[in-house]
């Protein structure tokens, strides 16, 4: 006969998960702690399981406002399984709550090296950038701790990141974005946005599209009114074959400037890649009304029509 559910590591972890879902965070903390002690007493090496238990207990601490213990448990989880997504995000949230903005920035930036589409990390970078500019001034980047370089092997591990980390998808509505910004950009913000956009443009020229996305996202955190920043970020998404994200950014660009030819062309390319040929043709038609002699658009139109046949 196997061990009773509550007498096994798996059983204790499952019970802790249920308590967490029920909002009983103190009880979940006790259960995860018991599971950790049992696992460690067994003497067999299972770093992945141990890391998950530390990370789960960290989530409880974070819910209870115990940020210091959250950071301690996340650090333990990361020592066992470096570059794990959940403990990095939880530790970043805890650092942010304690106003340790440089450390929070480093963790959010590390997450984006693993997957540059994680909405909570993108939003976190935006908040931390504003906080760091306000607290440390324009040279804030020089005062940051070093940001670890995520190896390619760690990036590949997260090719199939759970859906909860991809909340900012194509369905995200413009009104949500504007509501979250909720402020009029100052002249200083607009200038910072311009500089960051130019930095993104330079990275595109070098073929570093992932880093360019980060720069464009930072730029938009200061001012989200420039159509070109969205269409430039869409170009990066296209290069990385992130077609739904490209459609989303082109749509935002066109909301700001309905005559943005590059946004129409790039969205048509993205729709073609997604096999939404009718939408692609509609964008090409709109583009050709603005620029009837646009050669690349006419060639794309022929390719899409061939795909329809």
Task: From the structure above, extract its key features.
elongated, Serine Threonine Protein Phosphatase 5, Tetratricopeptide repeat, 72% helix, 309 residues, ubl conjugation, disordered N terminus, 0% strand, single chain, 2 domains, mainly alpha
Largest sheet: none
Q: Class of the largest domain, according to the CATH hierarchy? A: Mainly Alpha
Distance between the termini: 63 Å
Question: Could you say which structural class the secondary elements and strand pairing correspond to?
Answer: mainly alpha
Number of helices: 16
Radius of gyration, in Å, reads 23 Å
Name of the CATH superfamily of the largest domain: Tetratricopeptide repeat domain
Stretches where pLDDT is under 50 for at least 5 consecutive residues are: 1-5, 156-183
Number of domains: 2
Total number of strands: 0
CATH topology of the largest domain: the name is: Serine Threonine Protein Phosphatase 5, Tetratricopeptide repeat
Overall 3D geometry? elongated
CATH architecture tag of the largest domain: Alpha Horseshoe
- The residue fraction in helices comes out at over 70%
Compressed to H and E, one letter per element, the order equals HHHHHHHHHHHHHHHH
How much beta, percentage-wise?
Answer: under 5%
Give the averaged pLDDT, no decimals. Answer: 85
């Amino acid at each position: 006969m196997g061990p009773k559910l509550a007498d096994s590591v798996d059983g204790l972890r499952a019970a802790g998960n249920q308590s967490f879902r029920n909002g009983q965070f103190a009880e979940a903390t006790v259960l995860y702690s018991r599971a950790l002690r049992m696992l460690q007493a067994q003497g067999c090496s299972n770093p992945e399981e141990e890391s998950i238990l530390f990370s789960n207990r960290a989530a409880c601490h974070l819910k209870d406002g115990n940020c210091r213990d959250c950071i301690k448990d996340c650090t333990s989880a990361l020592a066992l399984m470096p570059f794990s997504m959940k403990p990095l995000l939880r530790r970043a949230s805890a650092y942010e709550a304690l106003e340790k903005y440089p450390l929070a920035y480093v963790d959010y930036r590390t997450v984006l090296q693993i997957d540059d589409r994680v909405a909570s990390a993108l939003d976190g970078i935006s908040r931390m950038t504003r906080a760091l500019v306000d607290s440390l001034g324009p040279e804030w980047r020089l005062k940051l701790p070093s940001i670890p370089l995520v190896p390619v092997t760690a990036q590949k591990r997260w090719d199939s990141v759970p859906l909860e980390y991809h909340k900012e998808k194509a369905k995200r509505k413009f009104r949500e974005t504007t509501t979250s910004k909720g402020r009029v950009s100052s002249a200083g913000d607009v200038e910072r946005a311009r500089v960051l956009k130019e930095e993104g443009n330079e990275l595109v020229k070098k073929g570093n599209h992932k880093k360019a996305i980060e720069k464009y996202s930072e730029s938009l955190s200061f001012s989200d009114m420039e159509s070109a920043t969205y269409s430039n970020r869409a170009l990066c998404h296209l290069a990385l074959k992130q077609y739904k994200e490209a459609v989303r950014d082109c749509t935002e660009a066109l909301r700001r400037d309905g005559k943005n030819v590059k946004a129409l062309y790039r969205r048509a390319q993205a729709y073609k890649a997604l096999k939404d040929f009718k939408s692609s043709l509609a964008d090409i038609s709109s583009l050709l009304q603005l620029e009837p002699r646009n050669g690349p658009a006419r060639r794309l139109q022929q390719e899409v029509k061939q795909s329809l046949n």
